[in-house]
Write a structure and sequence with these properties.
The strands form four sheets. This protein has a six-stranded mixed sheet with strand order 6-7-8-3-9-10, sandwiched between helices. It starts with a strand and ends in a 9-residue tail after the last strand. The protein has nine helices and 20 strands. The chain folds into two domains: 235 residues, Rossmann fold (3-Layer(aba) Sandwich), CATH 3.40.50.300; 127 residues, OB fold (Dihydrolipoamide Acetyltransferase, E2P) (Beta Barrel), CATH 2.40.50.140. By secondary structure, it is an alpha+beta fold. The radius of gyration is 25 Å and the shape is elongated. 24% of the residues lie in helices and 33% in strands.
């Protein structure tokens, strides 16, 4: 189908005040044939600009893009064999769902019988068979989005580009459409690149996820790899909902052990800074950082109620004050008071905890992450 190779892609826009904005900055990335790749990052990180460069809707300043080894320099959008689904549905209000889906094929002068066959197949795949005679105003948001998907699908392109197509839908419909997109990809096996600012959506959909910040690629990996092994502080703080807890401090020695000592310059008198013993395997790896400033990261699910911990050594246990209790149904998030800032723990819903209560917790240091505070890079 389509293997996409992006090499040193750069796009700079002029901004007010005689300034320039580097929307995409030296981006190199390969998207394998039949892969579902998600570009994720905060607003302004360059993900939509990257998509538009691939589609030919923007001219690149430097770098190259190729599909199956053929460069796209100078190739107009209509000749790239790429279909793009936008954030707004971009449906013609005076046309029926059927005519909206068929519009691109009619422009390309496909035979009528083939157009009807392709529209029927797409409608069946997207559960739109009962909606084909309706105009957009007679359709729900989810149906309109499926019509927009169908319009792209009937073209049978080599590459699908999705620009935040679900952001206008309510939460239940977004969840439903995510599942539909995943099933659609499994069924047709076409290369897909999907843009979103929602890291949860990215983790759900992508075979791989590429994290962008300020136009630069931070990390590209399978979702679980991003979650378990972030390469820097940005990825650690962006991937995961809620994100990783981060604490600034120093590594110190205590007898034969290596400990993380949290910085506490402005700590409230009632809150004791963290002082946690590293696992022996981690300590041997971190010996070179002894006495140096580090950032310690740990995810909420690795901060445990002491009664549930199988690794509850005294050097990894504290008593924490609960500030906010956030029940979500199957689990409960506790906002705990810290020496420098609050942090989160994830408890089972069966643990009854109230604000103002102190709870004994332990840190599972087998899941600890450490980062260089100056470069932001993970310390391996």
């Amino acid at each position: 189908m389509a293997r996409i190779v992006i090499e040193h892609l750069t796009k700079v826009f002029d901004a007010p005040g005689n300034r320039s904005v580097r929307a995409v900055d030296d981006l190199s990335l390969t998207v394998e044939d039949k892969e579902f790749l998600v570009l994720v990052g905060p607003s302004g990180c360059g993900k939509t600009t990257t998509l538009r460069l691939l589609a030919g809707l923007e001219e690149l300043d430097s770098g190259s893009v190729s599909i199956d080894g053929k460069g796209l320099a100078g190739v107009p959008p209509r000749d790239r064999d790429v279909a793009m689904v936008f954030q707004n549905y971009a449906l013609y209000p005076h046309l029926t769902a059927c005519d909206n889906m068929a519009f691109g094929l009619k422009l390309r002068k496909f035979p009528r019988a083939e157009i009807e066959q392709r529209v029927r197949e797409a409608a069946r795949m997207l559960d739109l068979e009962g909606c084909l005679a309706r105009r957009p105003k007679e359709l729900s948001g989810g149906q309109r989005q499926r019509v927009a998907l169908g319009r792209a699908l009937v073209r049978r392109p080599r590459l699908f580009l999705f620009d935040e197509p679900l952001s206008n839908l309510d939460l239940p419909m977004r969840s439903h459409m995510r599942a539909e997109l995943a099933r659609l990809h499994s069924r047709i096996g076409t290369t897909m690149i999907y843009v979103t600012h929602d890291q949860g959506e990215a983790m759900t959909l992508g075979n791989r996820v590429a994290v962008l910040k300020a136009g630069r690629l931070q990390q590209v990996a399978a979702p679980i790899q991003l979650y378990q092994h972030p390469v820097n502080l940005f990825v650690a703080g962006f991937i995961g909902s809620p994100p990783m807890n981060l604490f600034e401090g120093t590594l110190v020695r205590d007898a034969d052990a290596l400990l993380f000592q949290e910085h506490s310059a402005n700590a409230p008198a009632a809150q004791t800074p963290l002082r946690l013993r590293l696992e022996d395997a981690t300590a041997s790896r971190m010996e070179g950082c002894l006495g140096k400033k580090v950032v310690f990261g740990i995810r909420p699910e690795h901060i445990l109620h002491k009664i549930h911990s199988t690794n509850a050594r005294a050097e990894r246990a504290v008593e924490a004050l609960v500030e906010v209790v956030e029940p979500t149904g199957p689990e409960t998030y506790l906002h705990l008071a810290g020496a420098a800032h609050p942090y989160l723990a994830r408890f089972p819903a069966t643990d009854i905890v109230k604000p103002g209560q102190k709870v004994p917790i332990t840190f599972d240091m087998r899941a600890a992450h450490f980062f260089d505070p100056e470069t932001g890079s993970a310390i391996s």
